[in-house]
Design brief:
The protein is an alpha/beta fold. The protein has 1 helix and 8 strands.
Length: 142
């Protein structure tokens, strides 16, 4: 199966203007989100990466979840770091402009789970430390 990442925002801005080699915004139907009602804002987007799906972003699954800089002891792909940093910049610019933003990162398989909702303050989480958690719904705070 596959990871899927979605973002919703109160902003009417066409997020595809931020598309790059590492980051691609598209219509939410592209990812076939099974839980779109979890997203809290009017404008919803599927977020792909250079792999065309949402697999090439920094993320953790299970265990001790938390934000942290990339570690030498747990090597990460440079493309994942770059894609996540680009998405962080987009989210931060929307939040700084006063827009509401939330994300949903889910693993699609035959046993869907209810994602856990948590608030995330970008004032407390740096671009370098930011990463997604599998089956979590992030709600970004101003």
């Amino acid at each position: 199966m596959c990871y899927m990442l979605y973002v919703s925002t109160s902003s009417r801005i066409d997020l595809s203007r931020y598309n790059s080699e590492y980051l691609r915004f598209g219509p939410p139907e592209r990812g076939a989100c099974p839980q779109p009602t979890i997203l809290e804002n009017e404008y919803k987007w599927f977020v792909g990466s250079m792999s065309e799906c949402s697999c090439t972003f920094r993320r953790l699954a299970g265990g001790d979840l938390g934000f942290d800089d990339p570690q030498d002891s747990l090597p990460e792909d440079e493309d994942e770091i770059k894609a996540t940093a680009e998405l962080y910049r987009v989210i931060a610019s929307l939040v700084q402009a006063g827009c509401k933003v939330d994300t949903l990162n889910i693993w699609l398989d035959d046993n869907p789970v209810q994602p856990t909702r948590i608030p995330v303050s970008l004032a407390e989480v740096s671009k370098k430390a930011f990463r997604f958690f599998e089956n979590y719904h992030f709600v970004f705070e101003p």
